[in-house]
């Protein structure tokens, strides 16, 4: 009865994974690297789920099936730590593998070598005896260390990604990681339950949903929250949205016309990076137009501190990117009796006054 229950769960699991593979293939919002990473993750989870099902079917069965029991357990234990590594790869922004990912891959290769060598000895992580009976061995902790190390690495990479999302949804990340760790621990303590891969599938699906939602909120060029995100947020302002800051680049058309649009794009990315460094701890940063940015600040009393940091970081970056334009700045506190449009108009007015001062100073 327990085995039947397990096979039904595995069948449901595989259906979900096949459906998710189809969804990834149909997606036009994922870039090729993200699509490849999620596909690899779902296929890998499906493969390991099948291997676990095979090991349950053949365990304590005919002796001539012992080799199948050995290989299914070997591949299952060997490939399990690759799952969080695949997800971590999906979350990386660069096409190149980071040093962290290279170290994780090297650790996985070393672990596979150790597992392979142990097949020809008494067995380190597991054994399948001459009677075709599987049992854990004293080295089972090595597998657990590798698996939990992979989960911790995935947590670090996800929190790194969350910083790019201006630390939004961090609590969701902790809950996902905790759920995966607890689900695995239950499997370790009660081997007959067989819920690990159902938990892993659920986590992978939730990761897909979380990442898709976050990526869809970002401006593709700058990595700031997009104009659409800004418009949606301002339709339903929250109590913590207490100040609107608007920023506009001076003479940006001149930079595009003189140095080209690629140089202009680099300037936009540089300024977006400066904004996040200065403001993301206290508010949400948006790109709301070609060369127009804004911040919804939670703590107006931090405005001067953030402003000083922003222009200080800008000056530092200007030493590297000499064509980085100057930025005009305006702000206004949100009032209860006032619409966001009126608040923005007040902030824009201050920004235009700042821009006028820049032009007058430049003309002297």
UniProtKB/TrEMBL annotation:
Its EC number is 2.7.7.65. PROSITE patterns: GGDEF. Residues 240-364 form the GGDEF domain. Residues 345-364 are annotated as: Disordered. Residues 345-357 have a biased composition (Basic and acidic residues). One of its GO terms (molecular function) is diguanylate cyclase activity. This is GGDEF domain-containing protein. The chain crosses the membrane at residues 6-26, 38-58, 70-91, 103-128, 140-159, 171-189, 195-211.
């Amino acid at each position: 009865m327990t085995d039947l229950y397990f096979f039904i769960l595995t069948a449901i699991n595989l259906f979900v994974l096949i459906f998710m593979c189809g969804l990834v293939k149909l997606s036009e919002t994922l870039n090729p690297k993200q699509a490849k990473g999620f596909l690899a993750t779902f296929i890998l989870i499906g493969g390991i789920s099948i291997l676990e099902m095979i090991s349950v079917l053949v365990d304590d069965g005919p002796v001539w099936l012992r080799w199948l029991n050995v290989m299914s357990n070997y591949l299952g234990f060997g490939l399990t730590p690759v799952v969080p590594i695949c997800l971590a790869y999906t979350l990386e922004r660069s096409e190149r593998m980071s040093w962290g990912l290279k170290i994780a891959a090297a650790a996985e290769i070393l672990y596979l070598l150790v597992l392979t060598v142990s097949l020809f000895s008494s067995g380190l992580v597991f054994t399948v005896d001459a009677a075709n009976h599987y049992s854990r061995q004293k080295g089972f902790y090595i597998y657990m260390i590798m698996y939990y190390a992979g989960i911790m690495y995935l947590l670090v990479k996800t929190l790194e990604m969350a910083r790019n999302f201006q630390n939004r949804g961090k609590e969701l990340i902790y809950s996902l990681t905790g759920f995966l760790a607890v689900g695995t621990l239950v499997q370790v303590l009660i081997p007959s339950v067989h819920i690990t891969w159902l938990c892993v599938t659920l986590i992978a699906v939730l990761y897909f949903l979380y990442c898709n939602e976050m990526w869809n909120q970002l401006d593709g060029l700058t990595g700031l929250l997009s104009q659409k995100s800004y418009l949606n947020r301002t339709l339903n302002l929250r109590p913590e949205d207490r100040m609107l800051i608007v920023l506009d680049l001076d003479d940006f058309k001149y930079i595009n016309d003189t140095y080209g649009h690629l140089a202009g794009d680099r300037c936009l990315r540089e300024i977006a990076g400066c904004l996040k460094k200065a403001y993301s701890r206290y508010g949400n940063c948006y790109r709301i137009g070609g060369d127009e940015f804004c911040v919804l600040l939670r703590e107006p009393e931090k405005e001067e501190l953030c402003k000083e940091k922003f222009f200080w970081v800008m000056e530092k970056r200007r030493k590297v990117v000499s064509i980085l334009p100057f930025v005009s700045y305006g702000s206004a506190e949100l009032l209860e009796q006032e619409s966001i449009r009126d608040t923005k108009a007040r902030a824009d007015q201050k920004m235009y006054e700042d821009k006028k001062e820049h032009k007058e100073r430049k003309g002297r």
